[in-house]
């Protein structure tokens, strides 16, 4: 049984708040990352979770980000 798709707006909002990044920036990064993962995936159940984690980590680790 496959996992339900997460609400993209909620994921973007959550990452934006956690990382103090504009939602528009997070939305673009999430969409691009999701597309990259889906392109190479054989199993799609957890792709949205992996994409969200990658975007969140990238934004947290960005040395150019204002704190």
TrEMBL record:
Matching entries from InterPro entries are given as: DUF3562 (IPR021945)
Domain of life per record = Bacteria
Matching Pfam families: DUF3562
Q: What is this protein called?
A: DUF3562 domain-containing protein
Gene source species: Paraburkholderia rhynchosiae
From the broadest rank down, the organism's phylogenetic lineage runs: Bacteria, Pseudomonadati, Pseudomonadota, Betaproteobacteria, Burkholderiales
């Amino acid at each position: 049984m496959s996992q339900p798709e997460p609400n993209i707006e909620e994921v973007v909002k959550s990452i934006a708040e956690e990382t103090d990044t504009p939602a528009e920036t997070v939305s673009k990064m999430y969409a691009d990352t999701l597309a990259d993962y889906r392109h190479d995936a054989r199993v799609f159940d957890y792709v949205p979770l992996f994409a969200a984690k990658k975007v969140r980590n990238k934004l947290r680790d960005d040395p150019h980000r204002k704190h």
